[in-house]
Structures are given as structure tokens and as C-alpha cells.
Amino acid sequence: MLELNFEAELVEWRGPAPFFFAPIPSDCTGDIRAAAKLASYGWGVIPVTATIDGVAFTTSLFPKDGNYLLPLKVAVRKRHGITVGDRLSIGMSIVPLAV
């Protein structure tokens, strides 16, 4: 299992609907890539459990420009009033898939 703690500034990507992401710091990329070999279920997407202000949620990291983005669920953002530009302290774990 890989556990990471980091800070990130929330960004918005506008597609058909707005999506909000916390960019993973580049110094975590190597560890994530190593863990992904045991945890990814394909397409480069990596399932994770993240915690922000005591609220844990599951999601999947998305690869982007050689790094990763952590999507924030609407329920998590609304519960804490999180919006674009907010700096967040995030705990995140990647657990290998059961074989």
C-alpha cells in the first residue's frame, strides 16, 4: 500500500460539465507509477482513497501530462465549501488489487 500526504490547489477543468481536481505534486509521481503496476485496472486510471478535512472518499486518479489529477466529488466540495483556488491538505492511499 502507498500512503501520501500533500497539499494542492484546486483547479477546474471545463468539459461538458465542470470538474474539479487537485493536481498531485510531481515529486509523488514516481511512487504513484510504481504502485499503479499493482493497483491500476486499466487505461492508466488508479483507484485511490483520499481524505480531506476528515472526509474520506474513493475515486480514481487520472493521468494528465505525465502527472496525475485527483478528482474531488461534489459531496466533498460542498460539505466543506471547497472551491477553485483553495489550497487543500490531502491524505491519499493506493491499495493493490486483490488477485
TrEMBL record:
SUPFAM superfamilies: AF2212/PG0164-like
Top-level lineage group: Bacteria
InterPro entries: AF2212/PG0164-like_sf (IPR037079), DUF1905 (IPR015018)
Name of the protein described by the UniProt record: DUF1905 domain-containing protein
